[in-house]
Design a protein that fits this description.
It is a single chain. This protein has 89 residues and is mainly alpha-helical. 67% of the residues lie in helices and 0% in strands. The protein has one domain. 6% of the residues are buried.
Length: 89
């Protein structure tokens, strides 16, 4: 009985460790950050992604436009879809 309990505890510890390492190494997406109100962090993440990929942001990039676009997408996604009546012949 003791062995079984220690195996479960060991498995839990491994899962928690993997989860902690994952959270440290994999950042949130810019979209997620923007949706949840972390606008400055979202723009910083976009700049970091560009730097990592040896790219530059387009000259016409506007953080305010990006935030507005994400906000619009979120609003459109939450709209209720109207049901249309289907007629059969």
């Amino acid at each position: 009985m003791q062995l079984c309990g220690s195996l479960r505890t060991g498995t839990r510890c491994k899962i928690l460790t993997v989860n902690a390492v994952y959270r440290l190494l994999v950042p949130e997406s810019p979209r997620w950050l923007a949706v949840h109100g972390h606008h400055d962090a979202a723009v910083t993440m976009i700049r970091k992604i560009c730097r990592t990929n040896c790219r530059q942001l387009p000259d016409d990039f506007s953080p305010a436009c990006f935030i507005e676009e994400v906000r619009d997408q979120r609003c459109r996604g939450s709209e209720k879809v109207e049901k249309h009546e289907v007629t059969t012949f």
